[in-house]
Amino acid sequence: MKFPSSVSAALVCMAASVLSGQTLMISGKHPSRMTESVGPQVTPLSVPQFAGAHAIWGSTGQDSRGHIWFGVTTEGIPVPSAHLFEYDPDASGIVDRGNVIAQLSAAGVLRPGEHQAKIHSRIVQGPDNDLYFASMDEEGESANGTHMPRWGGHLWRLKLDTYQWQHLFTAPEALIAVAAGGRFIYALGYFGHVLYRFDTKDGDVQHVAVGSVNGHVSRNFLADHRGHAYVPRLREETTSLGRKIVQASIVEFASDLREIKSTPIDIDHYLQEQIPTESHGIFALQEMTDGSWYFTTHVGFLFHIVPPARGAGGGSADDARRTLCASAGFIRTGARTRPACSQATAQGRCSASRTTIWPMDRPVFTNG
User: Fold this and answer.
1) Which residues are CB-contacts of 308 (< 8 A; sequence separation ≥ 6)?
2) Using only C-alpha atoms, what is the Rg of the chain?
3) What would the pLDDT profile of 260-307 be if each residue is shown by its tens digit?
4) Can you name the residues that pair with 207 across neighbouring β-strands?
5) What is d(CA 295, CA 284) in angstroms, rounded to the nearest whole number?
6) What stretches of the chain show up as alpha helix (H) in DSSP?
7) Taking the chain, what is the end-to-end CA distance rounded to the nearest angstrom?
8) The pTM is what?
9) CB-based contact 59:119 (threshold 8 Å)
10) How many CB atoms lie within 10 A of CB 146?
11) pLDDT at 188
């Protein structure tokens, strides 16, 4: 996907326990000023320089030691190659843990002329304690989805005890997002929202085409504690009056990539003005202590996915009880919304205790 070409990459460390007046950095694409504010202490950290360093496109993660990981993309050099960095808060140091092209060469799978400009995915920790992430390139792709990126993507594992990269597989699609659930690692490729599943136990790789339209690419998806994955699906339909419209749903897949359920969501809660190419789909996400997930979409709506409780099993009855609720949203500036389910539960309603409403004054737009 194409993004603005001038972004200043910076990493910010926050000490949330400090609540008195502190210096707060106002940041973004063009950080401009420092202001005094009541809130956490914010310290800008300098990312080590390297040729072609460009941006951090949401590629971040945290390991079990509390170390922060992030990927930095490259541009403007003959062979673009994204770098992986580790930040140790205790040592206050950032270390370059390698770049994609060098690691492809070391693994013996580098193709002549290959580029891998981005690590765009989140960096997740698997059940084996290792880190997983994906690299990708955009060379030759068309924004409307008619031409795939020339070099596709790769799924990687980083051994935390040795910092050794392991190449897991190559995909013809650009792998833009990664999620971990159970013993499985999932990756999402474009175009067409192709879901890949890697089994950390035996290395088996499977994939399924979920479906998308007009070059739309969701920047994220998620997987729950059972190893079920949840991926947006977009389809174009023609109304009785001959008008083409786009419909959206969140599709749940079991760990064997069987489709469990497709939950329709209001297209206005997912796309901006029915323009798939310009909308980034699932934007931000967070797992809760009860195993449920919250995620937001490009246009500022909050959703809640509630899988069966941990230890409850994964049978069909449990799948039926899983809910996806539209937990918040906006209609116009200053408008308040009321609780609503985008898909009813088996009892025909959302449990009030499972749904929280967060009124929004406006959508939240962020590049990613």
Assistant:
1) 226, 314, 318, 319, 321, 322
2) 21
3) 999 999 999 999 887 888 899 999 999 999 999 999 999 999 999 989
4) 196
5) 6
6) 100-107, 316-321
7) 10
8) 0.80
9) yes
10) 10
11) 98
